[in-house]
Structure prediction request, 433 residues.
Amino acid sequence: MQRRRFMGLAALGMVSAIGLSAAGCGNDSKAGGDVTLKVVVADYGTPGSANSSKGYWDDLVRAFEADGRHGGVKVDVTVLSWEEVDDKVAEMVKAGEAPDIAQIGAYADYAASDKLYSASELLSIPVHADIIPALAQAGELGRVQYGLPFVSSTRLLFYNKTLFTEAGLDPAKPPKSWDELQAAAEALRTAGVKHPYGLPLGPEEAQAESMMWMLSGGGGYTDNVNTYTLDSNENVKTFTWLRDEFVGKGLTGPDSPGKTNRRQLFEAFAKGEVGMLNGHPTLMQQAAKGKVDFGTAPLPGREGEAGATMGVADWIMGFKQNGNREQIGAFLDFVFSTEQHYSFTDRYDLLPVTTSASEKMLDDKKHKDLWPFLEQLGAAEFYPVSKVSWAATSAEVKKSIGRAVEKGTDPQAVLTSLQRRAETEEAAARARR
Prediction:
């Protein structure tokens, strides 16, 4: 079904296969000039190792500079770890030394302060149209796209087939509803599984686990007009169910969810100690190394399969400060060309953000395990990253959402407190604009 949706876009002539020579309202693909673009990006591998992203960028820059269409444009890429790249770019911008291009975790602050070119000012028409619509929309601020999705991922339910069998569960029939999820977790607990269901609501990535549960319960962080709804009735019901029917019944293991991080549960899953948990494609590699026989399935929902899953994207953007719009656009057109974009996602088992590269992945049987994640992408829901207040709100969720599932705690009170903080941050952000 997802494949037909991608092909539908291709039939409309909206993919980059049209060619970069097509007329566009963005850059001239032959833009040149003796300019050296300063580019700062995140490392998706291990810095200093063979799988560092530096190798990819070195190859890409060589190919770009060797392409005669780009004249004297040179590119200087700095690859930094995820732990430092956002802060480093923020420091550069504050010092008046913004890079021409940054590939980081968020764009909204810079867009709101008019520091970024819009996507239509940078990309040629075929390249811009090739970006998957749900991802393009997630990069908008005030209905103008500034954030260009760089790579993406979605989330699925992972489950240990061996533990399912030992618990008397059919590994060919993963749970589809919360009731089925609870019943499976109870069977796994009875069979002695340490973590029947892994619920990481600790500070590492509680905002992600929370969003998945909100979506599966019919709620979310915001409504369809992008207004915060953390304490909606749906969200309160979701966390009340988690507190009473899951955590309260000992189905998440011996540790408090609010003090449990995703990384430790991923490691435990790879050791065969977790029956079920929500995960992204990287977990497949860890599980395979641990020789875990696992399956994946859509997220269970309140009454059946959840109507949506969570999608995550990292962002690349062009800064106005140095005035190199055409050169930035020419380089980004090259970055998002089917060959180059697919090369990166292929290297790191991530999901492409363009229709053409997604089609290529769907034709590559080597990535068959990624197809279920890719099929979810078109209907995925994303963090409200277009809200300038989201960074502060997300940080607060990480700190306190775990309390909503603790015994004796009122989920309504926790969520209402988060809602008020989010509204305060949003009002402050609007006042600064």
About this structure: Confidence is low (pLDDT under 50) at residues 1-32. The two ends are 42 Å apart (CA to CA).
